[in-house]
């Protein structure tokens, strides 16, 4: 009897594959005259499926086998393509809107482990001391090896205030670090502005979310009001910014570029993947020109001297902005070489409530540079100080990830960034003798979370010095004329 059921299962699987082939061949014939579905490989797939169903040590549901096959098919392509089940798809949608539950880290998969791309500021993971480049090897008592990225992310999510223990391998640490982190409903603010000195503004962008462009416009107008006049310099900080929505990156760029200037273009195999996005409302506002949040932005922001701060944790959308401002010579890029994620992921919803995140294109800066596996090379190289340590010390970049896409222009030589004077040695901060310990405090004590925008932020201070120097130079030139 069991043999009959197995035969029926194999026949059913063959029938499904046959229907898939017959339905897809007609559609593919219009797109490409060459056959796209490898029949022999599909037969092998059906044979392996049947063998697992009949001979595996325990019974396995068809849905699980097919889901794992889809997972493997996508994760084997590159580090950023993935299958999103119904819950994962909802979480992704919530994340781009600026509110989601969990620990607050941008992660990827590397050698079967979860690798931290960047911790999100003001989240539990960030405050506990999780760093870019950390390799998460255990979640509570569960080894990460063998889990899919979606499974690992699900385990990291949970009810607010519930605690999870992360075991982390960190470069240059002799043994794994243990972090006890309380989960929280994470509400991230992507824009953090302040007037660091009279006439000098500072805006930090932590992520590119749905309302980032609009929030930036509001922040810039508030800075102009607080300063009671035109700013003499502006620092745009995108360090450890893992990216986000493409249209938000275009909107941020458009705030500082002349209208209609090219921001980024993409190249892929389909017509939908070939885009040219410019500093024009239809490319950054979903509702079109009538909803243009930049229409009443003071014109001074198109010309104010700017420094853009980036580091190895600046990826994707933040690299688009930095590349556009660099190509148009609108800003001086300062810091360390960026992450190098120059690919576009498209979310493709499926009919059953799931979705796939598929790499569909590479993006290029206005001058045709591909950032994929290369990153943005700063105009002025300034290493991070010990007080704001982080990504630079770890050295994790796109080129280090398995299956990363190649750079189509990788044979071209990268210009070397001019080095800045080395930072003077800084004394380590003294811990408070009787301060109560918090979860993760022991692991975080060596480095602590980065304090971007603080008075001890060495790169920010160097940016301000450059802006002040430019201001003095401009005044001298004006006097000479």
UniProtKB/TrEMBL annotation:
Keyword presence, Ligase: no
Show the ranges annotated as biased composition (Basic and acidic residues): 429-440
InterPro entries for this protein: ClpP/crotonase-like_dom_sf, CtpA/B_N, PDZ, PDZ_sf, Peptidase_S41A, Tail-specific_protease
Q: Where is the composition biased (Low complexity)?
A: 414-428, 441-451
* GO-annotated biological processes: proteolysis; signal transduction
Boundaries of every PDZ domain copy: 89-171
Q: Which GO terms describe its molecular function?
A: endopeptidase activity; serine-type peptidase activity
Q: Which family does it belong to?
A: Belongs to the peptidase S41A family.
Instruction: Give the protein name, as stated in the record.
Output: S41 family peptidase
């Amino acid at each position: 009897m069991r043999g009959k059921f197995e035969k029926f299962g194999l026949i059913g699987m063959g029938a499904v594959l046959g229907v898939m082939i017959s339905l897809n061949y007609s559609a593919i014939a219009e797109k490409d005259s060459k056959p796209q579905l490898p029949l022999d490989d599909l037969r092998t797939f059906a044979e392996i499926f049947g063998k697992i169903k009949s001979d595996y040590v325990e019974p396995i549901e068809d849905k699980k086998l097919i889901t794992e096959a889809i997972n493997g098919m996508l994760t084997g392509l590159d580090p950023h393509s993935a299958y999103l089940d119904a819950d994962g798809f909802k979480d992704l949608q919530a994340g781009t809107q600026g509110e989601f539950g969990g620990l607050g880290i941008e992660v990827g998969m590397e050698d079967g482990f979860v690798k931290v791309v960047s911790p999100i500021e003001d989240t539990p993971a960030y405050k506990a001391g999780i760093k870019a480049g950390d390799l998460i090897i255990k979640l509570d008592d569960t080894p990460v090896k063998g889990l899919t990225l979606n499974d690992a992310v699900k385990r990291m999510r949970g009810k607010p205030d519930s605690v999870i223990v992360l075991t982390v391998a960190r470069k240059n640490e002799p043994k794994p670090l243990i972090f006890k982190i309380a989960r929280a409903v994470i509400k991230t603010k992507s824009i953090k502005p302040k007037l660091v000195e009279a006439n000098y503004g500072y805006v930090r962008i932590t992520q590119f979310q749905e309302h980032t462009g609009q929030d930036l416009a509001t922040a810039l107008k508030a800075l102009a009001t607080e300063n009671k006049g035109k700013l003499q310099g502006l620092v745009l900080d995108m360090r450890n910014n893992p990216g986000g929505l493409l249209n938000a990156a275009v909107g941020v760029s458009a705030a500082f570029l002349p209208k209609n200037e090219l921001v980024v273009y993409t190249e892929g195999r389909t017509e939908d993947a070939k885009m040219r996005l410019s500093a024009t409302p239809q490319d950054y506002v979903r509702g079109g020109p009538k909803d243009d949040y930049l229409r009443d932005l003071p014109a001074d922001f198109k010309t104010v001297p700017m420094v853009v701060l980036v580091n190895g944790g600046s990826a994707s959308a933040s690299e688009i902005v930095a590349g556009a401002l660099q190509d148009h010579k609108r800003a001086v890029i300062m810091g360390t070489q960026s992450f190098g994620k120059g690919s576009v992921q498209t979310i493709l919803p499926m009919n059953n409530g799931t979705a796939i995140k598929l790499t569909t294109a590479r993006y290029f800066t206005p001058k045709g540079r591909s950032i994929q596996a290369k990153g943005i090379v700063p105009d002025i190289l300034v290493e991070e100080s010990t007080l704001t340590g982080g990504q630079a010390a770890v050295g994790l970049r796109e080129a280090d990830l398995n299956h990363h896409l190649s750079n189509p222009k990788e044979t071209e030589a990268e210009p070397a960034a001019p080095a800045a004077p080395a930072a003077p040695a800084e004394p380590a901060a003294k811990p408070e003798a009787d301060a109560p310990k918090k979860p993760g405090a022991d692991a975080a004590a060596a480095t602590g979370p980065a304090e971007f925008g603080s008075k001890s932020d060495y790169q920010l201070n160097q940016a301000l010095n450059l802006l002040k120097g430019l201001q003095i130079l401009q005044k001298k030139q004006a006097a000479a004329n």
